Queue: 3 jobs
Job 1
Amino acid sequence: AGVATSSRRRGRGVLIAFIIAAIVGGAFTAWYFLAGPGAAVTIPTSIAGMTVEEATTELESLGFTVSAELGQIASTTIGVDLVAQTDPPLGSAARTGTEVQLLVSIGPRLLAVPAFVGMTEEQATAEIRAAPFTLLEVVGQFSGDVAAGIVIDALAGDRNGTSLTGVAEYGELEPITLIVSAGPLPDLLGLSVEDATERLQDAGLRAGAIFENEFSDTVPQGSVLRAQAVEGASVVRVGDVVDLVTSLGVEQVEIPDVIDLTWAEAKPILQEAGFDLEYNLFADAAPNLFTVTSLDPDEGTSAPRGSTVKVGFSA
């Protein structure tokens, strides 16, 4: 009986020791994986956009080691030389002590730039989306040489950007502004300033200064000759202000005083002044023998350039 009792006691001791060992082992395992060296920690996405030094400090504080060798990756959202990704990836879980490599941004991936000039607006838009780039804006530009709806140029960024014509590569998803022909400037010839202003508004333009500084043989004084780009501007785009040039009418020229001159002397003077001449054609046969005695209209008065002056002679 004593031997049996002793055996039972030893069995219970072994069982208790086993249970204690299992509890201790489980606790150690739980500590190792949950709080100890084997614990999994998420690589924080918040380090995206940090400098290498900032990201290194953040990762080391979480128990990771950081590789001395930097990697590179293209990014459309993270500035050049800032952390854009990691290996293992951002947001993934890794055990503390894991070596993490930082991947710094080299900027957007460079893509081939299509030959936009000469495409229709629809074709160019499709090419931008397919690349992919980002279509920022479509700007109408008036042109007498390019049909309406045809691309004149493509610009990097906004309407003040540099031309992409002839550029081989451009960054993925980077903005592009298309410059598309709006056809020629509206024809304003002979309109009143008021009517010309309305026509400009219909075309998406605004009237600015009015310059009455050109003569016209066909357009009455005060009527519009044309619209033109404001001083300093080389192109006119939809939404711009343009200046109006109005007519001074037919140029008035003073009739030269050629009385008492020979026809040989008087004729070239009157012609250079811009007048048509009505006279006795026999004077051309002996111009040095004919002397001018009268003009109609009179010398010293003004008449429209190109009008007729009657010449009288004495021989």
Job 2
Amino acid sequence: FRGASGPRNGELFFDALRRLHALAESGSIEGARLLAEILAFPGPVHDAEQAYKWYYIALSQMGYSVTFQDTGEGAPSYCGRVGDFRNESLVNDLVDLLGIEKIHQLDSEAAEWLQCHEERW
């Protein structure tokens, strides 16, 4: 994707984004992961909360742990056990941006979403 004056503001981009969202909603793990990545980056569709939620959904289905267990002991960034999806670079940046309280809320929302849509996954 190019900068703000390029395709990320165009009709084709937003149409593709809608389709990607539909794929994620229908149970596509790769669709959910790609949607999270697009939403995580700065730009016209940046949405840190939704990016984190879709990362939770996608990466949990790829075998990553979603158990919140910060082992950083006061470190400036979240540091979970090996296999924790929050250790992934982009996700860790979102954790720092959103804060631990918001992360707990989003964890609950994502877990509930997965439970309500378990037949798709």
Job 3
Amino acid sequence: MVGWRVGLACGLALLAGGQPAAAAEGKLYETGPSVVSGYVRFVNAGTVAATIAAGAGTAVLGTADGERIGTFQAVPARQPLTATIGMAGQDGVVTVTVQPDEFVTIA
């Protein structure tokens, strides 16, 4: 059975004014057919754009409808994954470990 967890990194709710950015999402972590995977997505729960830098790439989540929720991306299971989330000129770090076939949302 697929496990579901919601990881909340809402310490980034220190939101001050800022300019929203268009949503753009690239591959954040390296995976492939031989890698046992889980799935991670990021959600912008704030009032300013969020930039997520992790592994192999960067994603920007805006504040308009359709820009807040990233897509689930395959990530290597059973190993700590770290992302830096930037909002309103401040950064925070979140680390998560997913199990095979587990879906995790980080807000």
